Amino acid sequence: MIAEKHETILIVDDEASIRSVTEEYFRRRGYLVKTAGDGAAALDILQRGGIDCCFTDINMPGMNGLDLAERIHLTDNTLPVIVMTGYPSLDASIHTLRNGVVDFLVKPVNLKQMELSLRRAIRQRSMFVENMLLKQEVKGKDRIEKLNRELLHKVDELETANRIMAHFAATTSVSHAFQRAVDIAIEVVPADCTRFFVVGGPDGKPYEVATAHRPDGTAASSASAGTAGVHGGSNGDYTLLVKKVSIDGEPLLKTAGNGGQDLPARIGSLLAVPIQIRDKVFGVLTAETEGGSRSFTEKDLFYLSFTTQSAGSAIETLALYENLYENLFATLYGFVNALEARDLYTRQHSTRVTEIALILGRELQCSAEELNILNFAGPLHDIGKIGIRDEILLKPGRLTTEEFEKIKEHPVIGANMITQLGLWERERQIIRCHHERFDGAGYPDGLGREEIPFLARILSVADAYDAMASDRAYRQRMAEGLILEIIQKGAGSQFDPQIVDVFRQAHAEGKIARPPVAASAA
Q1: Among residues 265, 266, 303, 413, which one has the fewest Cβ atoms lying within 10 Å of its Cβ?
Q2: What CATH topology corresponds to 343-508?
Q3: 8-169 domain in CATH 2.60.120.10?
């Protein structure tokens, strides 16, 4: 039977399903629970008092979670606030530190993780309030100084924990999370080297996937001089210790001369903590010192354990995210393939347009992020044509005014598809704007010059070239010289002159290839 609890918590989220599930879980755990669908409703509840901790989503209509946290902190700086978000960013993580937020959870949030965070927050609040009361009661200088040292120690622990979570909130991929884990570990514990092992195979063999050394490089040189010591030495086998931790599922702290006789000879002190995902050991994070210069403490073990908890949550979330978007992209590209299968003449058009856009992007010195956006938006730029009837899309003759107006709807249809799927805004804008003209006479919004996203202006030139250089249902492809002449004449009217100049230079250098002749329909 669960012991009765009397703490009252407030859950703020604009999704009713999340509020319902969370409320039911904490009520069963013995807590008193109140809920609110937005920041304004939450402030009304808080004004009536009696709340011990507040969970809030960041992204909500009206007042967002960070603004709510700031209002709470200004009113009662002892009330702990824990924020949750499905779209973590480094800026949001840093912003939380300025608003008195005590914890930062990434959706989907494990309910047990929420409860652990709640218990920690309430315990820290209790200590904080107790400390303030003692300051009023205790007049002895020594007692006050001691309490202040304890409080500073707790603040230091909280800042370290927030720093760890902020680092993982900015992680963008599973492989990035591996390296981020060892980089963070070497910051928070006095280690010479940290390593991340993934445990795989039927024999549970650990595979080292990421390593970090002290910034001064002293550990790196000694490690390279004795690489064999990682896996074995005169006193012990490193890999066997890691495997033991993965099997037992328990953290390990060993120091040479103090129960660490099985450590490799070069290691003075070793920490090894398992990383669990859904109650199964996925990997092991280790930290080591060389020689007898430093020995790890229980505090170091706590920090490394907190790092592995954050790493496990980040890796699980990222793995689910990557799998979801891989499936989503496969579906979208399936739509593109279905669209191109309808029209023999435009087959592989989207792929060629993307290749040309990437060539132009590199010539224009676009960033890696911008090239990634082009690589995503390019194959999908005409996806809206899936909503255009065949008798219009495949018409061999000239379109009527009404039919052309229907064709002009495809950028909006495509952009709306991306919006409904919850994908990124910059990619959506490119898909919507790739038929805008530099002089403002394009569609669907009549944007001009810098109003048109730069990447959409690049895609517009690539799209026009491939369209003219390919056989279409209503005409044969144009001669190369005529295409170049049309594009040059369009500089400043249809196209961005800067991009036209770069296109002509790349074409002259042979970087842009004319598409092959389409196979005739049998």
Answers
A1: 265
A2: Hypothetical protein af1432 (1.10.3210)
A3: no
